[in-house]
Design goal:
Chain A: Pfam families: Sdh_cyt (PF01127). The structure holds two protein chains of two kinds. By secondary structure, chain A is an all-alpha fold. Chain B contains four helices and no strands. Classes of the chains: A mainly alpha, B mainly alpha. At the A-B interface, helix 2, helix 3, helix 4 and helix 5 of A face helix 1, helix 2, helix 3 and helix 4 of B.
């Protein structure tokens, strides 16, 4: 490959070893004074960090949710309006579900954003897929938040 | 064709593929799940009607599949964090994947009866 002359780090045999299982990837561009303002932030780094922090919290929140809803006390059999009313009578479970809703939606939306960036090659395709994604994620967060805060056990 | 790497076509690549696929599936379910739960604001009957769908044997089996996807994504996500933040993470990423698979198999075996008990009781009596 002609790239060997420009990327000396990757043509050495020792480029891959157990501590570096993937080839070294040179930064695609250096950040200079001419770099557009839009790409001068650390947005992607904060996104990367958010995926890990929210991921750890979601392991606890989602696995706890699955345990209560699908495993304990007869599994899915018990679920109904009365069961939901019983749980949301407690601010603790309201807060649990609210935090889980926000973190899961943002975590999932950022994951799908990465996937769209990876596979949609045309600018317009990326734009529309992301517009659809952000609309769906915003709708999910707003609807879910409203439902938790306005829940009325005596609706009938 | 790049020289043989420790990544391409191996555990690292396939766990990445599985992480993506399960992540997308879980996101789509989350969207549907918020919609069905929001029916508690319509009426108790509307909510109980849609929850009845979740008690159908085929959908109950899909819930077991959802548990499978979430458990893999959760356990492999912890492995990704270990690869990123633990100094020996990259060295042991393969062993950690087999650890993830092992814990996943144990948890899936443990979840089999509790998650599917509604269907099992319906099909084979109590």
């Amino acid at each position: 490959m002609s790239a060997e002359t420009t990327t000396p780090a990757t043509d050495a045999v020792s480029a891959y070893d157990v501590d570096h299982p993937a080839p070294v990837i040179e930064p695609p561009r250096a950040r200079t004074r001419k770099t557009p303002r839009a790409t001068r932030t650390n947005f992607e780094m904060y996104g990367w960090l958010f995926m890990r922090l929210s991921g750890v919290l979601l392991v606890v929140l989602v696995l706890g949710h699955l345990l209560i809803q699908l495993v304990l006390d007869g599994g899915v059999t018990k679920i109904g309006f009365a069961f939901v009313a019983g749980r949301w009578a407690s601010p603790f479970w309201q807060a649990w579900d609210l935090i889980m809703l926000w973190l899961a939606t943002l975590h999932g939306a950022n994951g799908l954003r990465t996937i769209i960036n990876d596979y949609a090659e045309r600018d317009n395709t990326r734009l529309w897929l992301k517009a659809l994604l952000y609309t769906a994620a915003g709708f999910t967060i707003v609807l879910g938040t409203l439902v938790i805060f306005t829940f009325d056990p005596n609706i009938r | 064709m790049p020289a043989g790497t420790l990544y391409r076509g191996r555990e690292g690549m396939w766990s990445w593929v599985a992480h993506r696929v399960t992540g997308v599936l879980i996101f789509f379910f989350l969207f549907v799940h918020v919609l069905d739960t929001s029916l508690v604001r319509v009426s108790p009957e509307a909510y109980d009607d849609v929850v009845a769908t979740y008690k159908n044997p085929v959908v109950n089996l899909m819930e077991y599949g959802l548990v499978a996807a979430i458990l893999f994504h959760a356990l492999n996500g912890l492995r990704v964090i270990a690869v990123d933040f633990w100094s020996k993470g990259a060295r042991y990423q393969r062993q950690m994947l087999w650890g993830v698979v092992g814990v996943w198999v144990v948890l899936m075996a443990g979840a089999f009866y509790p998650v599917l008990q509604h269907t099992l009781r319906e099909l084979f009596g109590s």
